[in-house]
Design goal:
It contains three helices and six strands. A hairpin with a 3-residue loop joins strand 4 and strand 5. Helix 1 packs antiparallel against helix 2 and helix 2 packs across helix 3. A three-stranded antiparallel β-sheet has the order 1-2-3. It is α+β, with helices and mostly antiparallel strands and 143 residues long.
Length: 143
């Protein structure tokens, strides 16, 4: 990782930690739990903070060979949007939101919901593998 990317990643990690603390309720706990699971599933994943503007504080994003998922928090849900979700196998049925989209799928976590940690970890690994495969396709010479 270049020094700039390392600094950007550290700044993003600090913003995510601040966001978790700022929430201070079940949403912060849920976001902290999925963050831990994401890093357990892929220790090389990078944290980013995107789409910050005056009308929005920004959004946590986890990336490896491309964006994997976001971790947005709303009043009633913590929403984990997977960028390539429609292409991923989801045998445990974790995706419960944004199901009509052609590319993305999301998991909405509500207060009191239990997340199947094993299935979630497998989904993160699958998303990272899909990003790696897409990157390899782009890098291979066209015949």
């Amino acid at each position: 990782m270049t020094p700039k990317r390392a600094a950007d990643s550290a700044a993003a990690s600090n913003k995510i930690t601040s966001r978790i603390e700022e929430l201070g309720d079940w949403r912060g706990e849920a976001l902290a739990r999925v963050r831990r699971l994401i890093h357990e599933a892929d220790p090389e994943i990078e944290e980013q903070w995107k789409w910050e503007k005056p009308s929005s504080p920004g959004t946590p994003v986890w990336s490896h060979d491309g964006d994997v998922c976001t971790g947005e928090s709303y009043k009633e849900v913590v929403k984990l949007t997977f960028f390539r979700g429609a292409a991923l196998d989801d045998p445990q049925g974790l995706f419960n939101s944004s199901l009509a989209g052609k590319t993305r799928r999301a998991i909405d976590i509500r207060d009191g919901d239990e997340l199947d940690e094993g299935a979630f970890t497998a989904l993160i690994r699958s998303a990272v593998a899909a990003n790696g495969a897409a990157r390899a396709r782009r890098a291979s010479p066209k015949t």
